[in-house]
Amino acid sequence: MKNTNELKLIDGQFSPDEAEEILMNIFFSKIHFHQNKNFSSEERFGEKDLAAVKRIPELQKSMDAISKLIVDAKHNNETVKIIAEVKINLSKS
Description:
Blueprint: E1 4-14, H1 16-45, H2 50-75, E2 80-89
Antiparallel strand pairs: 1-2
Helix pairs in contact: 1-2
């Protein structure tokens, strides 16, 4: 088995509303993951998970950018093409 895999997550043309739903769900899921990870770290070790705390505002900023793009697409009566791949690398710890 090779150490790197590329998987197609999204490849399509969407209405602005569909694109917003798809993208916001992905980003919200990642924010929720990091919030839970930080909460778990605080409960178990009494300290924040610094990587999770740093990542949350980055993801929120991306969500703001998505919202602006969607507003523009709606205003200009455009569709939204989304192409997203996931790259998975396996390595020894």
